[in-house]
Specification:
With 337 residues, the protein is α/β, with parallel strands linked by helices. The chain has one domain (4-311): Homocysteine-binding-like domain (TIM Barrel, Alpha-Beta Barrel). The protein is built from 13 helices and ten strands. It has helices spanning 4-11, 22-27, 39-42, 44-56, 71-74, 83-99, 126-143, 156-168, 191-199, 216-229, 257-270, 283-295, 304-311, and strands spanning 15-16, 61-63, 106-111, 147-153, 173-177, 207-212, 235-239, 244-247, 250-253, 272-277. Helix 9 (191-199) packs across helix 10 and helix 11 crosses helix 12. The protein is globular, with a radius of gyration of 19 Å. It binds zinc ion (ZN). Residues 212, 240, 278-279 line the site of zinc ion (ZN). Residues 212, 240, 278-279 line the site of zinc ion.
Length: 337
């Protein structure tokens, strides 16, 4: 137990993670289509503001601005050759902010999907995916990240490739998948499938769970499913602040700080230990989440209708864990025999 996150987990009943990266960077002037990671070098003060916002609101852990920092994604911005440097600097700025906070704050090196489809369905081989994640991991490690944190993953193959790369970098890690398609990941994985899949990995994560997806309600249903399949695991809940809506040409999340406070307390009751937000979650939300977690004792596991009553309806009736298959679109113009 030599790393900072394991130590913090052994001392605390819950840990507040951070909120959105994208939402908060757009509020600082990032334009749609820009690569946020390039700001680590061109706009370091904005990245300091991003990290400080979470730490100032009470986060015990924050993710670095390196979500799209793999060679495959950076290539789209002619920056693949800066992979190591963009990750190193993204983590190093985080290290400075965490060390200056006067308390234990974990710097989690964010690793997002490659954006490519892995074999056998797509063309990205396991070996190349591992190599891309490894390159990113080494940059984050050099910059001083405490742990690596793969997030918003849909394909189990990609999750496995990341875990292998993190073993090569000799780094502890956490990982979350995004369940955004009627309770499943885009590649069809259910919450229970994930719980079972992670249990078989050679390089075990310190914690795992779900991030992003649809709304806060759906995310908690997912956490309940993972908890059922992996009852001894340390679980992560990072849900969006409500549902995205287009407003004046911008994406706006309708979840209030109060709603996210309710969500945080319910996330802990569902079995999550590391609790944060995803898209739409600002420092204002985080401060209320922290206050609610501190003021409320842990309760019993909520029933699904308690989650609906507190946070709103689910996006789909089933999340696939009840044995019902994925909901398929009705085939039109083709008669079944
Ligand atoms: Zn998100």
């Amino acid at each position: 137990m030599t790393n900072a996150l394991s130590k913090l987990l052994s001392e605390r009943d819950w840990i507040l993670a951070d909120g959105a990266t994208g939402t908060n960077l757009f509020n600082l002037g990032l334009e749609a289509g820009d690569a946020p990671e390039i700001w680590n070098i061109t706009h370091p003060n904005n990245i300091r503001t991003l990290y400080s916002g979470a730490v100032g609101a009470g986060s015990d852990l924050f993710l670095t601005n390196t979500f799209g920092g793999n060679a495959s994604r950076l290539k789209l911005h002619d920056a693949a050759n800066q992979t190591h440097e963009l990750n190193r600097v993204g983590a190093a700025i985080g290290r400075d902010i965490a060390d200056a906070s006067g308390r234990t704050v974990i710097v989690a090196g964010s690793v997002g999907p490659t954006g490519e489809i892995m074999a056998p369905m797509g063309s990205l081989t396991h070996e190349i995916a591992v190599e891309m994640f490894h390159e990113q991991a080494e940059g984050l490690k050099t910059g001083g990240a405490d742990v690596l944190w793969v997030e918003t993953i849909s394909a189990p193959e990609e999750f496995r490739a990341a875990s292998e790369a993190f073993a090569m970098a000799d780094m502890p890690w956490c990982g979350t998948m995004s369940f955004d398609t009627a309770g499943r990941t885009m590649m069809g994985m259910t919450s229970k499938d994930m719980g079972k899949m992670v249990g078989k990995l050679a390089h075990q994560p310190l914690a795992f769970g779900a991030n992003c997806g649809v709304g806060a309600s759906d995310l908690l249903r997912t956490v309940l499913g993972i908890a059922e399949a992996a009852s001894d695991a340390t679980l992560i809940a990072k849900g969006n602040a409500g549902i995205p809506k287009f407003q004046d040409g911008h994406i706006h999340y309708d979840g209030t700080p109060e709603l996210m406070g309710e969500y945080a307390v319910l996330a802990r009751d569902c079995g999550a230990t590391i609790i944060g937000g995803c898209c739409g979650t600002t420092p204002e939300h985080l401060a209320v989440m922290r206050a609610k977690l501190e003021a409320t004792p842990k309760g019993t596991k909520p029933a699904l209708d308690q989650i609906i009553a507190a946070l709103g309806a689910f996006s789909s009736e089933s999340d696939g864990t009840d044995g019902n298959g994925p909901v398929r679109a009705v085939r039109r113009g083709r008669r079944r025999s």
